[in-house]
Design a protein that fits this description.
This protein is of the alpha/beta class and 217 residues long. The chain has seven helices and nine strands, in the order ββαββββαβαβαβααα. It has a five-stranded mixed sheet, with helices on both faces. Strands 3-4 form a two-stranded antiparallel sheet. The longest helix has 28 residues.
């Protein structure tokens, strides 16, 4: 998916107006190269034909989709953040209906304001993925099991997507297994955060097993 529209844009430096093709939606699962393009700040970056300066154009709405990761980011202009609840409420009903119609009800939209917030989110996701891969290797070396949970749940609750557990899938062993992984490598801050979350919410281990991705333990 690549969505775009032709709009009249104004140079932020000299005010000159010209027509430009604005990207309003991308799916990086279909076009992986677009993720790097976005992270480098090149999406909707234009050069003014008059003064030749470069400037960024912020569309009213930008959709960043990654079907493989079950992610849909809806990015509003940064100026909308001061009235965030109203904009999200207005848009949520329509996007939910559209996703259900397309058979994508498993996607839980994440609403963000400004491109930088999406960039920060994606960098955080990449960091979580790296820590998860390291944790999987540690689990194997320590004789622990691990399982993956559904990504929408992990994002909503701010927890890792790979959960350490002792043999037998007893939810009561998630906490000690998580601490064991963290103590093995104290650079894995997401696992320290997971342990803290479990110590606060005693129901969390059982909840994690309920959203376990099938066929993985």
């Amino acid at each position: 998916m690549i969505e775009q529209s032709t709009e009249t844009v104004s140079c932020s430096k000299c005010g000159a107006e010209f027509e430009a093709d604005i990207l309003t939606g991308i799916d990086v699962a279909l076009y992986p190269e677009l993720k790097d393009f976005f992270m480098q700040g090149m999406v909707n970056m234009f050069q003014c034909p008059e003064c030749e300066s470069f400037f960024y154009y912020e569309p009213t709405l930008f959709a960043y989709q990654d079907i493989k990761e079950g992610f849909l980011g809806i990015v509003f202009p940064l100026s909308y953040e001061k009235d965030a609840d109203r904009h999200i409420k207005k848009f949520r009903e329509g996007i939910t209906a559209a996703l259900n119609e397309e058979g994508k009800e498993y996607l839980e939209p994440v609403f963000l304001f400004g491109y930088q917030s999406l960039k920060d989110f994606l960098e955080f996701e990449d960091k979580m993925e790296i820590e998860a891969e390291i944790a999987e290797h540690i689990c194997k070396s320590l004789g622990l099991d691990s399982f993956k949970i559904e990504l929408p749940f992990a994002r909503k609750h701010g927890v890792q997507r790979v959960i350490p557990i002792q043999r037998g899938l007893d939810p009561n062993t998630i906490y000690p297994a998580t601490l064991e992984v963290y103590n093995h490598n104290q650079q894995l801050n997401s696992y320290l955060s997971l342990a803290k979350a479990i110590s606060i919410n005693k129901d969390l281990p059982a909840m994690l097993l309920k959203v376990k991705v099938r066929g993985r333990h």
